[in-house]
TrEMBL record:
Keyword line: Coiled coil, Metal-binding, Nucleus, Zinc, Zinc-finger
CC per GO annotation: nucleus
Biased amino acid composition, Low complexity: 42-58
Coiled coil: 689-730
Pfam families registered for this protein in UniProt: FAR1, MULE, SWIM
Lineage, broadest ranks: Eukaryota, Viridiplantae, Streptophyta, Embryophyta, Tracheophyta
Protein name (record): Protein FAR1-RELATED SEQUENCE
Organism (species): Eucalyptus grandis
């Protein structure tokens, strides 16, 4: 056979997989596309006569060993590499000059050669890890005239350390999702399970993470590609549905990114109720990712279909969502640890405090620490208590160190990684920011329940439209039922406190139960004053019998303002038992208005809030650019659809559009006339404004007098309180003396 000379470098130019036959050969080089020696093990791959069986895992390569096909040879060498502890990749090949088929193939160690660096003056986007060290280990096979492939060269020695058996599954050439695993993944994905849950099942079924044969990233990539393959061509149905909703509802918001016809774009929509709800409850947002690896991503105040989960897609999603919500940023947002989502949130919501979803961390712990969970049944409970229970940073640090020491996990890489990010997910580091969380030990209150039973991985576009409407209707019905129960049934009061009665009439049923629990607990939490200043005081509050676990409350009695070291109100918006205990001893009988968050009350959805916030829903379409743009866009869509129905309607529409364009241009040119009319209208109302200003001055004067009277009252009341305290001390002294006399 004749071969052309060829210069073989570290870079490669072509990758082919085939069983082509040929007698004469030409030369070429093979392209490494990141698939390297990743081998699909076909049932037909078998050994030749010389080797006996190329599928036998106990055999080692040797010159002269024969295989039925090139694929069988590569499969055998990759199996050998897994057993020894190194990865493989396809290197150079030679072609037949007669028919162009491959007649010689070289499979090398994945660390063969050296990666070519960039030329001078070329800036690299990122520095890649050095993995190639010039290893010479390889196996070359050539095609014989009989059609079989034989080993013509085998180099066994490596110039680097081999990978131990418990880590060999991380090598790229050995990360393979086999057929049975794919079937199981498809089934679990169709049931709505994400990659973390799928991997947990696979680890349990295979007897350990080392036996799975691939990583979570491989599972995630397979599920993502499977979703892309099954999306189908029903996207236009969703787009048509959204157009119909826009035409029928002026408050319906929809945006499309990219080329939707080719299923390469993303869609976001939010109906009028979602946008209104954000005005009431948009201070904290939960961006749930449980459906991310299925097919659809529900968002708390809207819905999105993301067909391209890149960083730019998430940036577009958050920016579009903010546009739909009048540009109002939330105080806090809960996300998962995904680096792409974290980067997008940091860019679009730089002033928003973001944390990781704690329950996603616990779920990932089941995968990363599966061996610990199996060997120590109590570890899960201890781990969650270590995260949820501590009330101070010092307590958490001690608890964490103790847990690592008891379980021998001090060198665990995943736990070290999560500890380094503790300020993003451990509650004690986040309590100074409002997240609306009622309890540290509560289960995950996920938005999944919004779509559970309606949408999963197997839902088609046609069914999606119908099920989306059903889910919205069901949730609306539940809200109506909850509101009815709150308004028409009275909760059972447990104390004679006026504050409890007030809370029962103000809060929703769920929030009242939480508040009631805190109020009842004050009976076991005595408050002791430790610092008394002229206008403020500091109290020490601890549960009876647990003086070592004390919280400190700083209170201004006259202004009825207090703050506690536990920061429960800042975190959840509910008064803690410590402040309530101080209010009890300072005779604060009702909840001050500053400590009743409107979002937790029966009247949370007040229309007055919308007047200042949701400009898109105002009755006057000229109040804001957003409202004007939205109204014009809706009219324009309807205009285009009607005008395109026939040639005649198209001609009429174009003529009318030309006339309208000329009028708009004229109005822009002579816009000053509108300002003059506005000025005249302002002069007519000037007299009314003068009367209002006079009344405002009178009320301001009365308010100043009332404030002076209040200050005098405060001084007198403070003197009375001090007298009461002195009398209490005198009584205590007398009682103590009487006890001593009785004992004597």
């Amino acid at each position: 056979m004749d071969f052309e000379p060829v210069s073989i470098g570290n870079d490669v130019v072509e990758f082919e997989v085939g069983d082509s036959a040929g007698e004469d050969g030409g030369a070429g080089t093979g392209l490494d596309l990141g698939l390297g020696g990743r081998v699909e093990r076909p049932p037909s791959a078998g050994a030749g006569d010389t080797s006996g069986s190329d599928g036998d895992p106990g055999l080692e390569p040797c010159e002269g060993m024969e295989f039925h096909s090139e694929q069988a040879a590569r499969t055998f060498y990759n199996s050998y590499a897994r057993r020894i502890g190194f990865g493989t990749r396809v290197s150079v090949y030679q072609r037949s000059r007669r028919d162009g088929s491959v007649v010689c193939r070289q499979v090398v160690c994945s660390r063969e050669g050296f990666r070519r660096g960039g030329g001078e003056g070329k800036s690299k986007k990122r520095r890649r890890t050095v993995t190639r060290v010039g290893c010479k280990a390889q196996m070359t096979v050539k095609k014989r005239s009989s059609g079989k492939w034989a080993v013509s060269k085998f180099v066994e020695e490596h110039n680097h350390e081999l990978v131990p058996p418990d880590k060999v599954h991380c090598l790229r050439s050995h990360r393979h999702v086999p057929g049975p695993a794919r079937s199981l993944i498809d089934t679990l994905q169709a049931a709505g399970m994400g990659p973390s849950g799928v991997m947990s099942v696979l680890i349990k079924e295979s007897g350990g993470v080392n036996n799975v044969g691939f990583t979570k990233i491989d599972c995630q990539n397979y599920m993502s590609s499977s979703r892309q393959r099954t999306l189908g061509s029903g996207g236009q149905l969703v787009l048509d549905y959204l157009k119909q909703r826009q035409a029928a509802d002026p408050g319906f918001f929809c945006a499309v990114q990219g080329d939707f016809d080719n299923l390469a774009g993303n869609i976001f929509w939010a109906d009028a109720n979602s946008r209104k709800n954000y005005a009431y409850f948009g201070d904290t947002v939960n961006f749930d990712t449980s459906y991310r690896m299925n097919r659809y991503r529900p968002v708390l105040f809207g819905c999105a279909l993301l067909l391209n989960e890149s960083e730019s897609s998430f940036i577009w999603l958050f920016q579009t969502w903010l546009d739909a919500m009048s540009g109002s940023h939330p105080v806090s947002i809960t996300i998962d640890q995904d680096g792409i989502i974290r980067s997008a949130v940091a860019q679009v919501l730089p002033g928003t405090r973001h944390r990781f979803c704690r329950w996603n961390v616990f779920r990932e712990a089941q995968e990363k620490l599966s061996d610990v969970y199996c060997s120590n049944p109590n570890f899960e409970t201890e781990f969650q208590r270590c995260v949820n229970v501590p009330e101070t940073i010092e307590d958490f640090e001690l608890c964490w160190e103790s847990l690592l020491e008891r379980c021998g996990l001090r060198n665990n890489e995943w736990l070290q990684l999560m500890y380094n990010a503790r300020q993003k997910w451990v509650p004690v580091f986040l309590r100074d920011t409002f997240f609306g969380e009622m309890s540290m030990m509560q289960g995950k209150d996920s938005i999944n329940s919004y779509f559970d039973g309606y949408i999963n991985a197997s839902t088609s576009f046609q069914v999606l439209i119908r099920q989306y409407e059903n889910a919205i209707a069901c949730r609306h019905e539940k809200e109506i039922k909850s509101d009815y129960e709150t308004l028409n049934t009275a909760p059972v009061l447990k104390t004679p406190s006026p504050m409890e009665k007030q809370a029962a009439n103000v809060y929703t049923r769920k929030i009242f139960k939480k508040f009631q629990g805190e109020l009842v607990e004050t009976l076991a939490y005595p408050a002791t004053i430790i610092k008394d200043m002229e206008s403020e005081a500091v109290y020490r509050v601890a549960k009876f019998g647990e003086d070592h676990k004390a919280n400190f409350v700083k209170v201004d009695v006259f202004r009825k303002k207090a703050c506690c070291s536990c920061q429960m109100f800042e975190f959840s918006g509910i008064m803690c038992r410590h402040i309530l205990a101080v209010f009890r001893v300072t005779n604060v009988l009702t909840l001050p208005p500053d400590y009743i968050l409107k979002r937790w009350t029966r009247n949370a959805k007040s229309e007055s809030l919308l007047d200042d916030y949701m400009v898109g829903f105002t009755s006057n379409p000229q109040e804001s650019f957003t409202a004007r743009y939205e109204n014009l866009r809706i009219k324009a869509i309807k205009y285009v659809e009607d005008g395109a129905e026939s040639i005649h309607s198209y001609t009429v529409a174009m003529d009318a559009l030309q006339i309208a364009a000329e009028k708009v241009a004229a109005s822009k040119k002579h816009g000053f006339g509108l300002k003059q009319k506005t000025l005249i209208h302002g002069c007519q109302s000037q007299s009314r404004c003068t009367e209002q200003d006079e009344k405002i001055r009178e009320l301001t004067s009365e308010l100043a007098n009332a404030s002076l009277q209040c200050e005098e009252y405060q001084r007198k009341l403070l003197a009375v309180l001090k007298d009461v305290e002195e009398q209490k001390l005198k009584i205590l002294v007398k009682v103590q003396n009487m006890r001593l006399n009785l004992k004597g």
